[in-house]
Every structure is written in C-alpha cells, then in structure tokens.
Fold these 2 entries.
Entry 1:
Amino acid sequence: QVQLQESGPGLVRPSQTLSLSCSVSGSLTSGAYYWTWVRQRPGKGLEWLGYISYRGNTDYNPSLKSRVTISLDTSKNQFSLKVTYVTAADTAVYYCARDKGFSGVDSWGQGTLVTVSS
Amino acid sequence: DIQMTQSPSAMSASIGDRVTITCRASQDISNFLAWFQQKPGEAPKRLIYVASSLQTGVPSRFSGSGSGTEFTLTISSLQPEDVATYYCLQHNSFPRTFGQGTKVEIK
C-alpha cells in the first residue's frame, strides 16, 4: 500500500505563491500512475486540481489552469504543487493522491491545511 | 468537461435503514465511477470503484451500481459509523470531476 504525505507552509500571504510537496513511499515512475492534487475549501466539497503522470505529462483544472503547476522530483520521490497569486479563496485543505487511470484514485495523503492571510 | 450531479445533498435516516445516493454524469462515462466516504477531519476513503467493485476491507453493506450516466451508492443497513459525507468521482477522463457530496446523518 503506497503512503503519501503532504508538507509545506500552513500560512501564505495574499498574492504570494503556495508551494506544497508530497512524499511518496515507493517509486513515482514504476507504474502508470497519475500523481494528483485535490483541495477542499472549508465546509465545501472536493475539487480536483490536476495531475502529473509518471512520464511527466500534466493536466490541470481549467478553472485554475493559469495559476497551477505540478512537477515531479524523482530523486526525492516527491511531486509538488504551486499555486500563484493566491487569495483567501485558496484557503483549503490540500490533498495529494495517486490515480491509477481507469481504476481511479485509490490512495490519499492525510491532507494539509493552507491558510491565505496577511 | 464532465459534470457530476449528486443527490440528495443531505439526508437523515434511522439505524438499519437502506440508504441510496445517486450520481448523474453529463455524458456517458461507461462504468468509470468511484464512491468515497469522508468523515470530519479525515481524508476521503474509497468505497467503490469502476461503479460496482468493492474496495478491499469495506463492509459488504456498501454497494454500487450503474453505468453510462446514472449511478447509485447503496448502504443496505445504515450503521452509526456510516455518518459521513459521500462523494462520487468520475475516472473516465481528465479533468476528473467530483459530485457535490451527500451528507448522511442519523435520524
């Protein structure tokens, strides 16, 4: 069973860049996986942000596409999320997850709360 | 993008009741639909994938059905530990999209 763990600052100033990492047990490139970020605003539902594939291909939620970047660091067995020009609306619990393609998302990190505030 | 419409948004039922939650897709997603359970302060937990396959370790009172555009999650006999919010997620194509969630409470 793969383990995922998010890490990064819990507080980000408005207009700055939110940066999170997800550490993965096991190899990021050993299978046809899509390494995924999902967020959940306080009291709201789940919002898919995007993925990076084991080959380095990416796809993002169209509503955030211009502000989101997901990258892979195989040397550290991590993948990362950056969201630029954050506002209070980006305050959320951010989850990293593994998506196995046609069998879907099967594993999640525990989530990390990021608050955007001055 | 595929839109997922989940209903109801909230419900209450008695212990032992049969509970049904529905998810409708805006286009045909074959059987590529998953159901997740989320309890407060916890990450979502997968219950069902490819519409009807039960995740290992999930109680058999949970079941999923459907194909195409209409899907159902059924809890055959509601238990106190089933109090949670349930989400559907289409995994037919990217971008992935979730339903809005159904909060299940005990009456």
Entry 2:
Amino acid sequence: DAGITQSPRYKITETGRQVTLMCHQTWSHSYMFWYRQDLGHGLRLIYYSAAADITDKGEVPDGYVVSRSKTENFPLTLESATRSQTSVYFCASRDRTGASNQPQHFGDGTRLSIL
Amino acid sequence: LAKTTQPISMDSYEGQEVNITCSHNNIATNDYITWYQQFPSQGPRFIIQGYKTKVTNEVASLFIPADRKSSTLSLPRVSLSDTAVYYCLVGDGMDSSYKLIFGSGTRLLVRP
C-alpha cells in the first residue's frame, strides 16, 4: 500500500540506550521530516531532509541523529536516550513538485517511553 | 515566520456548523495558510490550504479576508467523528515550509 509507515508503533527502553525509529514512504517524496509531540502540545521539528543524503536540523535536534541514504527511508536515532526524549514521534513527507505549498503527509507515530 | 493564534478549545453539537478562526498578524506576502486535523494516536492530516479569498473542498471551507491577517476554517454539519485537534499554520513555500510551526491547536469536541 502506498503511504508512509513508521515502526515500531510503541517502544519502551532505558536511559542510555540507543534507539532507532524507522520511517518509510512509498511516494518518492523529496522532503521528509521528523517531529516530536509532547503531551498536550503541538509538534516540534527535529530534523528534515530535502533529498537523499541531504539533512538539516530543525527546532530541537540535540540528542538525535538522522540519515537518508535512500529517498524512501529516513531513520531517526537517539544515540543515548534520556527521559526527556519520551514522546510521540511523527515522520512526514512532502512532494517537491508544484508551484504552491505541498501539504505534508504524516505517519501514525511511534510512542517512545524511556525509563 | 508568522505565528498563529487559535482558541484552545471549542464545543459544538452534531449537525452544527463550526468555525475556527486563526490569527496570523505577521503573515508574509508569500505565505499560504494550511489547516491540519489530528485525531488521538494519529498523525496530523491535511484538510485545506489557501492563499486568499475562499477555498472549498469536500470536507471544509477556508475563508481568508483581504488583509490575510486571519483565516477561518468552516466545518459544515459536524459529526462526532470531527472531534479532533485542528492546527492552523502559515508557511511560505517549498524551500522553507519545513519551518512550519505547529502551535497547540484548537481542540474541538462535538457532542451528540
């Protein structure tokens, strides 16, 4: 099925561990994004990518690492997880073509708990 | 980047029309106005986007006055399934739309 999928949907880990969240999209969209959403708040941009091998920091990048070796995948890694990184993580993608703003398409999120 | 201000919450009843207004006083010339809907445990979903005047699609209408300093999302005849958080965002196009800032949104509760 076409779309954007995130895995895992739920993850519990301990402080200090490395965690990788996966994001895969089937549209061949150029842009991909990672957001975090804390309880009762809006989304904050962590990292984004304009194309394969091109990534850049968003609003809250500290403690996170991303890579994009293939257009369709955009994994997010927490190198040494901390409790403050407990959150719901959303991946999104967007097409590059077209004259007007292209809307972002979001996955269903990964709920990450760090104990 | 233009900041947006929306009501924190709204209540309505099934079958009513709901209008959610968003203020964006510092909107720039190239900015578009986009609305997203988010259900619990799901990612935001694009609803509608506009630049000026009125835009209508199968789920909503977007009214933008001439000065563009505000916009109103109109949901006709809401149902219980429209209970969600609605976000208003402004952004200026392909190269910098990654900077879209999601505020706290408007939490709409539709009652039977």
